[in-house]
TrEMBL record:
<dbReference type="InterPro" id="IPR027477">
    <property type="entry name" value="Succ_DH/fumarate_Rdtase_cat_sf"/>
</dbReference>
<dbReference type="InterPro" id="IPR003953">
    <property type="entry name" value="FAD-dep_OxRdtase_2_FAD-bd"/>
</dbReference>
<dbReference type="GO" id="GO:0034628">
    <property type="term" value="P:'de novo' NAD+ biosynthetic process from L-aspartate"/>
</dbReference>
<dbReference type="InterPro" id="IPR036188">
    <property type="entry name" value="FAD/NAD-bd_sf"/>
</dbReference>
<protein>
    <recommendedName>
        <fullName>L-aspartate oxidase</fullName>
        <ecNumber>1.4.3.16</ecNumber>
    </recommendedName>
</protein>
<dbReference type="GO" id="GO:0008734">
    <property type="term" value="F:L-aspartate oxidase activity"/>
</dbReference>
<comment type="pathway">
    <text>Cofactor biosynthesis; NAD(+) biosynthesis; iminoaspartate from L-aspartate (oxidase route): step 1/1.</text>
</comment>
<dbReference type="InterPro" id="IPR005288">
    <property type="entry name" value="NadB"/>
</dbReference>
<keyword id="KW-0274">FAD</keyword>
<keyword id="KW-0662">Pyridine nucleotide biosynthesis</keyword>
<dbReference type="Pfam" id="PF00890">
    <property type="entry name" value="FAD_binding_2"/>
</dbReference>
<feature type="domain" description="FAD-dependent oxidoreductase 2 FAD-binding">
    <location>
        <begin position="7"/>
        <end position="374"/>
    </location>
</feature>
<dbReference type="InterPro" id="IPR037099">
    <property type="entry name" value="Fum_R/Succ_DH_flav-like_C_sf"/>
</dbReference>
<keyword id="KW-0560">Oxidoreductase</keyword>
<keyword id="KW-0285">Flavoprotein</keyword>
<comment type="similarity">
    <text>Belongs to the FAD-dependent oxidoreductase 2 family. NadB subfamily.</text>
</comment>
Length: 476
């Protein structure tokens, strides 16, 4: 069989869709676990897109905030590409049909979120930016003649010829396998929030793409850096928690302890808008000491229109945020680490590319700045898409064949145990002895399912980084 001219993109979130759209006219096969992006973390993103659009704002100022949040662990080339590409990314999204929120004079409304030194965030549909982006990009991909979509499939294997990735193994809901070849493979499979007992991600953000790349021998980096969002809606015993957007704190909401005192006064000069890791640790400790609440009552009657997603989630659980504080807890939110790639998404394995949260080009350093993640998906997705247009075929249909498969999944009880373990040992506050014990437990679980192996690799990275940096905070 001859190698098809198409590229195979795995993942139907913002990064995968932006890559697929930008690859035109190169033929693309887009593989998605969901039917139309509904299982992608992008759909849940409430924060907006950071872009230096205001008069007086610059890519340099945005880059400065990105690197301060990232504890200067960031890759400068990637940060420059991100912040210089931000305004163009917003304009491209508008051309795809995204209607960003505007003020009474028709100007783009710019909000402020933690770690930004000025208002810089565009939103769509209030706190429904991710959903609005996905609506537009899914619709654009549906009518794009160069994109063929296969929905409802899981990719659990990589096909190699002479060490070069040239296809994937896709498995459908009925357990049927199919090998799908392409001149390049892109993983855009999202993050690892699902590995933790509490996450703001959908369950599909389970680390499966990262585990597959590691099984094939791709290099990874910065795996210890996991960002916890300080304010998920606290629902005991629930794995995937609704997010309570940071934009509420930008609009004046305040974090309170059990006694109604401010949680953040005196902790950081930016108080409630301090960098996310600092707020997450404070909320983590408060939850241990009796609980944490977000008082957003000052948003008042405008709540349902300004923050419709949070409003619905609260009301669904019997909390009216217009008149009562919202119980909150930290939740695994974003993985700064991932498959090591350059700014064009090339991994260390020939033929394999990665983009979005599963990838790590170093742009976020040790801690991602608010509203830089959808932006990352669009900027680096479009960049990778442009590269894919020009990639030559491997021309090697007969080389030594290999199929690298991810191990089977852990069974439900073991997976639940692993998630609790990750939350305890790899949460916002870490400590050497707990990490060592967790590594041994993960080692034992690795024989039972791929999540154990991935967790062991992440815990190992956390153990090797002995000093605190960004989201990796060690009390020992
Ligand atoms: C939020 O809305 O608080 C999350 C935004 C982000 O993760 O960038």
């Amino acid at each position: 069989m001859s190698t098809p001219a198409r590229v195979v993109i795995v993942g139907g979130g913002v990064a995968g869709l932006a890559t697929a759209l930008a690859a035109a006219p190169a033929p693309v096969l887009l593989l998605d676990r969901g039917r139309g992006g509904e299982t992608a973390a992008s759909t849940l993103a409430q924060g907006g897109i950071a872009a230096p659009m205001a008069v007086g704002d610059t890519p340099e100022a945005h880059a400065r905030d990105t690197c301060v949040a990232g504890s200067h662990h960031n890759d400068c080339t990637a940060v420059e590409a991100l912040t210089r590409g931000a305004v163009e990314a917003v304009e491209w999204l508008q051309r795809q049909g995204v209607a960003f929120d505007r003020d009474g004079d028709g100007r783009l409304q710019l909000g402020r979120e933690g770690g930004h030194d000025r208002p810089r965030i565009v939103h769509a549909g209030g706190d429904a930016t991710g959903a609005k982006l996905m609506e537009a990009l899914v619709a654009a991909a549906r009518v794009a003649p160069h994109i063929e979509r296969h929905a409802g499939v899981d990719v659990d294997g990589l096909v190699l010829r002479d060490g070069r990735v040239c296809g994937v193994r896709a498995t459908d809901a009925g357990g049927n396998h199919e090998a799908l070849h392409g001149r390049a493979v892109v993983l855009a499979t999202g993050g690892i929030g699902g590995m933790f007992a509490q996450t703001s991600n959908p369950a599909d953000a389970d680390g499966g793409g990262l585990a597959l790349a590691l099984a094939a021998g791709a290099d990874a980096r910065d795996l210890e850096f996991v960002q916890f969002h300080p304010t998920a809606l606290a629902l005991p015993g629930v794995h995937c928690l609704p997010l309570v957007t940071e934009a509420l704190r930008g609009a004046g909401a305040r974090l309170l302890d059990e006694a109604g005192g401010s949680l953040m006064d005196g902790v950081h000069p930016l108080a409630d808008l301090a960098p996310r890791d600092i707020v997450a640790r404070r909320v983590w400790r408060a939850c241990r000491d009796g609980g944490a609440w977000l008082d957003a009552q000052r948003v008042g009657a405008a709540f349902p229109t300004r923050f419709p997603t949070v409003f619905r989630a609260c009301m669904d659980h019997g909390i009216d945020p217009r008149v009562q504080p919202i119980p909150v807890a930290p939740a695994a939110h974003f993985h700064m680490g991932g498959i090591a790639v350059d700014a064009d998404g090339r991994s260390s394995l020939p033929g394999l590319h990665a983009v979005g949260e599963v990838a790590c080009n170093g742009v976020h350093g040790a801690n991602r700045l608010a509203s830089n993640s959808l932006l990352e998906g669009v900027v680096f997705g479009r960049r990778l898409g442009r590269l894919l247009r020009t990639l030559p075929g491997s021309g090697n249909d007969r080389g030594r064949f290999a199929l690298v498969r991810r191990k089977p999944s852990l069974d439900a009880p073991r997976l639940a145990g692993l998630r609790e373990l990750m939350m305890r040992a790899m949460g916002p506050v870490r400590e050497g002895e707990a990490l060592r014990a967790a590594r041994d437990e993960c080692e034992a679980l690795a024989g039972h399912g791929w999540q154990g192996g991935l967790a062991r690799t992440m815990v190992g990275a956390a153990l090797r980084r002995r000093q605190s940096l960004g989201a990796h905070f060690r009390i020992d």
